[in-house]
C-alpha cells in the first residue's frame, strides 16, 4: 500500500464559522454555537483528483484547495534511472479548480520526513517548507482526463498518472443513524467521495460539550471543546452542529491481496457529555470523553504555571521566549496527578477499575493534545512574526489568537 498521508485539516464546521484550515483569529476565544444544520455551500467542488494505489488498494481522492503528500514508500524509481540522481523523499501535489479545469502543481522534497508526524496540529507538517525542494511543474485536465506528472522522471521516479473525476460518487454512502443519548439526534449527508456531514441536534435544555460518534471502524469521531485550535466548541440547547467525517473504506493486505471492509451500515452517537458534568448514553464512552477534557485542563494549568515566569522576564525578546516555552512544554509528561484522577473518578463513581484504566489512556491523549496545541500556536506565532504583517506579542497571541 502506498504510504500516503493526505495533509488535510479535518474540517469541523458550523453555520457561523467554517473551519477548513488551521487558522485562528482574534474572535477565536469565543464559544461557537451552531444554530442550524450546515447550509449547502454556494460553490461546492465540481471535481476530484483520483490518485492510484498499489496492490489492488482502491484509489484515493483529493479536492481543490487540498494537498496530497506522497512519501518514499509510495514512489517508484525508474528502472533505468541515472544512479547518480538524488531521489526525492516526498512529492507534494497541490490541486486547484478553475472553471472546467483542475490544475495540479507538483513539488519534490529532499530530506528526512516522518509521515507519522505529519498531523494537522504537528509543527512537523510545516517542516517540509524548510527542506530542499524542486518544482516539477503544473499540469491541467478536464473531467475524465488522465493527467501524467511527467517531470517525476527528471528526478528518477516513475511518473504518476491521476484522473479527473466528478466530486460526488455515483453511489454515495448513506448509513442509518441512531443516538444512544435520548436528548440528541443525528443525521448524515454525503459531501463528496471522501467526506460527509454528521449533524448533531441538541434537543436538551443543557449545553453539550462533547459527543462520541461511532463512525468508521478504528476511526471514531469525537467532538471535543478543544478539537479546534483556540476555539471552544459547545452545542447550546436547541442548536445543531455539523461535523465533517471521512468516509473512506478501510481494508488490509492479505497475502499480497487487498481485502476491503465495507463501510458500516449504521452511524451511532454513543454518548454525550454536558457542561454540568452529566452525560447520556454509554457510561464508558462518556467517561472517555470526560477524561480527555480532564487531561487538557490539567496540562494547560501546568503549562501556564511554567511559562508565567518566562513572560515576566523583562530582558528577553519574544523569539527567545518562544524557544524557551517550546522547550519547557516539550519536557512535560502525559502522566496525570493523583488529584485529577480522583476528580475524574468522583464524576464517574460507578465506572469499573478496568473502565477507569481504559479512560486514563484518553486522559493522557488530552494532555498530549494540549502540548501539541501549544506547540502549534507558537509555530503559528513565529510564522506570523516572520511575515510582513505586524504581529502582536507572543503573550497576547497565546491569549487572544489561541485562546490560551
Structural write-up:
The protein is of the alpha+beta class and 404 residues long. It is 24% helix and 30% strand. It has a 5-stranded antiparallel sheet, with no helix packed on it. Strands 12, 15, 16, 21 and 22 form a 5-stranded mixed sheet that branches. α1 packs antiparallel against α2 (318-330), α1 (283-312) packs across α4 (353-386) and α4 (353-386) crosses α5. The chain starts with a strand and ends with a helix.
Number of E-state strands: 22
Helix-strand sequence: EEEEEEEEEEEEEEEEEEEEEEHHHHH
Structural class: alpha+beta
User: Uncertain spans, ≥5 residues at pLDDT below 50?
Assistant: 1-42, 117-126, 225-230
What is the residue-mean pLDDT, rounded to a whole number? 79
Radius of gyration: 23 Å
Q: If helices are DSSP runs of H or I spanning 4 or more residues, what is the number of helices?
A: 5
Q: What is the percent of helical residues?
A: 10-25%
Spatial shape: globular
Largest sheet descriptor: 5 strands, antiparallel
Q: Could you say how many structural domains there are in total?
A: 3
Report, as a whole number of angstroms, the end-to-end distance: 40 Å
Roughly what fraction of the amino acids lie in strands?
25-35%
Strand order within the widest sheet?
Answer: 1-6-7-8-9
Amino acid at each position: 500500500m502506498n504510504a500516503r498521508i493526505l495533509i488535510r485539516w479535518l474540517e469541523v464546521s458550523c453555520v457561523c464559522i467554517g473551519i477548513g484550515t488551521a487558522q485562528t483569529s482574534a474572535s477565536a476565544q469565543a464559544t461557537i454555537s451552531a444554530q442550524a444544520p450546515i447550509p449547502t455551500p454556494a460553490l461546492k467542488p465540481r471535481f476530484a483528483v483520483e490518485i492510484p494505489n498499489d496492490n489492488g488498494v482502491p484509489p484515493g481522492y483529493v479536492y481543490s484547495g487540498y494537498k496530497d503528500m506522497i512519501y518514499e514508500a509510495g514512489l517508484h524509481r525508474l528502472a533505468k534511472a541515472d544512479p547518480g540522481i538524488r531521489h526525492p523523499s516526498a512529492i507534494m501535489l497541490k490541486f486547484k479548480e478553475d472553471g472546467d479545469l483542475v490544475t495540479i502543481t507538483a513539488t519534490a522534497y529532499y530530506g528526512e520526513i516522518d509521515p507519522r508526524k505529519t498531523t494537522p496540529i504537528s509543527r512537523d507538517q510545516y517542516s517540509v517548507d524548510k527542506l530542499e525542494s524542486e518544482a516539477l511543474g503544473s499540469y491541467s485536465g478536464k473531467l475524465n482526463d488522465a493527467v501524467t506528472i511527467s517531470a517525476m522522471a527528471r528526478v528518477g521516479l516513475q511518473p504518476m498518472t491521476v484522473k479527473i473525476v466528478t466530486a460526488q460518487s455515483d453511489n454515495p454512502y448513506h448509513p442509518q443513524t441512531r443516538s444512544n443519548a435520548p436528548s440528541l439526534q443525528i443525521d448524515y449527508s454525503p459531501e463528496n467521495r471522501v467526506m460527509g456531514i454528521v449533524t448533531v441536534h441538541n434537543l436538551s435544555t443543557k449545553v453539550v460539550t462533547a459527543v462520541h460518534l461511532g463512525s468508521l471502524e478504528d476511526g471514531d469521531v469525537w467532538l471535543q471543546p478543544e478539537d479546534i485550535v483556540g476555539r471552544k466548541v459547545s452545542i447550546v440547547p436547541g442548536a445543531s452542529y455539523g461535523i465533517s467525517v471521512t468516509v473512506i473504506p478501510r481494508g488490509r493486505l492479505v497475502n499480497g491481496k487487498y481485502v476491503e471492509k465495507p463501510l458500516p451500515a449504521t452511524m451511532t452517537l454513543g454518548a454525550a457529555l454536558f457542561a454540568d458534568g452529566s452525560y447520556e448514553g454509554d457510561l464508558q464512552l462518556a467517561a472517555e470523553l470526560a477524561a480527555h477534557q480532564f487531561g487538557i485542563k490539567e496540562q494547560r494549568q501546568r503549562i501556564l504555571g511554567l511559562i508565567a515566569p518566562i513572560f515576566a522576564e523583562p530582558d528577553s525578546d519574544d523569539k527567545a521566549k518562544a524557544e524557551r516555552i517550546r522547550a519547557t512544554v516539550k519536557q512535560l509528561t502525559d502522566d496525570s496527578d493523583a488529584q485529577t484522577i480522583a476528580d475524574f473518578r468522583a464524576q464517574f463513581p460507578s465506572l469499573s477499575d478496568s473502565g477507569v484504566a481504559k479512560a486514563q489512556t484518553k486522559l493522557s491523549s488530552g494532555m498530549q493534545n494540549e502540548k501539541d496545541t501549544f506547540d502549534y500556536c507558537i509555530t503559528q506565532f513565529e510564522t506570523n512574526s516572520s511575515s510582513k504583517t505586524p504581529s502582536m506579542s507572543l503573550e497576547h497571541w497565546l491569549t487572544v489568537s489561541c485562546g490560551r
